[in-house]
Amino acid sequence: MTLATPMPKTMSPVPGPHTQTAEPGVPVGGIATAVGNTPVVFVPCEPGSRRGFWAKLEGANPGGIKDRSALYLIEAARRRGDLAPGAPVVESTSGTLGLGLALAGIAHGHPVTLVTDPGLEPSMRRLLSAYGATIDVVPAPHEVGGWQQARRDRVLHHLAATPTAWCPNQYDNPDNPDSYLPLGRELLAQLGHLDVLVAAVGTGGHSAGAARALREALPGLQVIGVDSIGSAIFGQPARPRLMRGLGSSIHPRNVDYAAFTEVHWVAPGEAVASARSLASAHYASGGWSVGAVALVAGWVARTRPAGTRIAAIFPDGPHRYAHTVFDDDYCRSQQLLHAAVPAEPEEISHPGEREAICWTRCTTVLDPRTATASATAAAEL
User: Fold this and answer.
1) Residue 69: how many CB atoms within 10 A of its CB?
2) Do residues 31 and 106 make contact, with C-beta atoms less than 8 angstroms apart?
3) Long-range contacts of 324-333 (CB under 8 A, 24+ apart)
4) Sign (positive/negative) of CA torsion 372, 93, 62, 121?
């Protein structure tokens, strides 16, 4: 049984192209070589306007943004000897990492078991099965940690039952942020200069890695995190969440709190309206995370000085959301249709000021684990 644990940064080499080894005379390559070097497109605030933002279309990867992390996590574990050739890989996922792990499992010859919950779309479940993954659905949420904790507990059960199995541990494994260093470098090569990066936050991996790579060249870069209402990541109370792919009921270690200039919480109806507007006006769209990120990035483009260069990371494309975000019957059943989207967010001065129930902005970014520890220590004095 192996659960990936935090290791010194020196243990994580800078990611490079994903290649596969082969016997002499056998061509190398495969689907892994299609990951990365995704395009950017300009999304104007209004047709013909010079105000807007650049969208990094990670949906152009075979499975989405987490193809990057899945391949890198498995390759790093194999290099260190943590993952033996042909050994099983077991991980918790809400969908996108599952696609990446299925890809990496095929590329490197590992059976993959994905622990998910009933919120995973049936079409995604069928697709992951078609890619050879074994799907294990937990029946009920953990009473404190919600679905994420229930899934993680089930992963531990699998690891205990199969001593050779390995878990990428995407929430806490520092290889996860490292896997997104190339994404930041791609943005720098494509755009030359950036003033603001807007990124969704779930495990914390892609925001941390991309920001770190960009700030090596652009130390003044502002990073704006986009979270879901009902998410505990930035110090709000954990609630049942409808949106998948951003937010968390736990506090992942990979979230780089110090990197963020501000954080925005977005509600599901607002993300749906934004994603649908993107699709009809620009064709480039995606699901919950993309809708939320685009909402915030558009506001930044409208309110910052002219000439401010903004990049927004779109983690995936629209296809897996045909029966949720882009399904009128589903959205009607969840009271998401025709949601009133304000022109600007509400403002709070501190995450603990009040609970965000709609698009809300806060420029005080705290690590809730540190804040809780400090409060506990003060209470004991």
Assistant:
1) 30
2) yes
3) 324/121, 324/287, 325/271, 325/272, 325/275, 325/276, 325/287, 325/288, 325/291, 326/275, 326/276, 326/279, 331/272
4) negative
Walk across the sheet containing 222-228 and list its strands: 40-44, 52-57, 310-314, 196-200, 222-228, 262-266, 360-362, 346-348
The angle, 0 to 180 degrees and rounded to 10, between the axes of the packed helices 66-80 and 205-217 is 90
CB 89 within 8 A of CB 74: yes
Closest CA to 241 of 148, 127, 367: 148
Q: How confident is the model at residue 358 (pLDDT cuts 50, 70, 90)?
A: very high
Using the Cα atoms of residue 248, residue 251, residue 253 and residue 256 in order, give the sign of their dihedral. positive
Q: What is the DSSP string of 83-144?
A: S-TT--EEEE-SSHHHHHHHHHHHHHT--EEEEE-TTS-HHHHHHHHHTT-EEEE-SS-BTT
Helix H or strand E segment including 269: helix 268-282
**Side by side, which strands form the sheet with 166-167?**
2-3, 166-167, 89-92, 112-116, 134-137
**Mean model confidence pLDDT for the chain:** 90
Q: Cα-atom radius of gyration of the chain, to the nearest Å?
A: 20
Point out the least confidently predicted range of 138-147, 169-178, 231-240, 367-376: 367-376
Q: Alpha-carbon distance 374 to 369, whole Å?
A: 9
Question: Residue 352 is encoded by which pair of tokens?
Answer: 């603990």
Output the pLDDT for position 13. 34
pLDDT of residue 249: 86
Distance between CA atoms of 19 and 104, rounded to whole angstroms?
11
**Which residues lie below 8 Å from residue 269, measured CB to CB, with a gap of 6+?**
335, 336, 337, 339, 341
The Cα 207–Cα 223 span in angstroms is 8
First to last CA, the chain: 41
Confidence of residue 2 (pLDDT cuts 50, 70, 90): low
Report the 10 Å Cβ neighbour count for 172: 18
State the amino acid at position 7 in one-letter form.
M
- Residue 158 makes CB contacts below 8 A (sequence gap 6+) with 90, 113, 115, 136, 165
- Asked if 34 and 58 touch (Cβ cutoff 8 Å), the reply is no
